[in-house]
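Encoded backbone
================
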Amino acid sequence: MRLSSGCARGDDGIVRCDSQRRFISARPRWWFVALADCSSEDGLNVTYWMSLTNAPPGTFWKEHFSADEFYILPVLITTACVYVILLTLSFHIALQLRSRRLLHISYKLFMASLLCQLLGALCEIYSYVNLGLRGVPAANAYLLGQLAEACSETLYTVLMLLLALGYTVTKSVLTTSQVRWLVLFVGATAFLQMTLYIYEFEIFDPGLVLYIYESPPGYGLIALKLIAWFVFITRCCKTIRKLNTKLHFYASLLSLGSAWFLCHPLTVLTVTIFVDQWVRESVAKGSSLWIVFLGHVTFLYVTRPSVNNKRFPFHIRTCQVVPIGGRGQDHGYEPGPRTAVTAFTIARTPAYLSQSH
């Protein structure tokens, strides 16, 4: 017997259903599918396969994407193209810095951050292309992309803290306490980041939690970033007091670093409170990519080796020897007046005078 719902009861007593439903709404909304057998008191034992689409078959950009994912793939493709350009420019600048012996580990960290961000975008593009073509995302590629982007953010944050400490700008060696604090910060960030993804995999309900930072590990990461911002401000001010000749660079660094540390928590707060649920994921993803892009492109501009660039930070050469007992804290590399010292004199002897006559 075939029912109007598209279901038919077989000779074995199993009801098999094969049907389609189409809904049209003026705006994105949640749809809930309910199954019930009102004549039974034993409940339902259901095995089902369900494909929910948002557009006619063949519409790649919308068919298998939910309303809050419509614009993520175009944004990721644009991001990947832009980061290919940024990475090419960074390699060009790195070659110039290397020829001048100014290619420090801080700039290498910046290039590693760019590379991780590009890798993350490419992995997420692969996952979303699979979703658009087959209706199923590549979960492993998506996770790898998220981890790569988290690594990019962590590397850039460490770069900001190193520059705030004056490393490769005003000194070439960090103290033991500074190294210990940086290792602790990176370890805590990595632990919370891994906990965040494990928490998402084990506990998150995709129907209720729409943003990854709506969780205790996410709040912990936000708090850690605020603490890092406070340390960043205090260390920048202390470095400026010690060496005011780098005022132009550290004024730019204060603005860049403050925007970097504060925009992410403010974005999380804004997205969670003010953004509608059906656009939350797209807005959060776009905002996160935009913040990281601004940080990268601004640092690339500030570190360009140009004569007119008064904010150029690097003047300590990579071949420079650390002075004994100075622990890299002095600034003897800076241009300044030099006092001429007589090392030895050549006097004309009587024998030489007699020969000349």
Summary: DSSP finds eight helices and two strands in the chain.
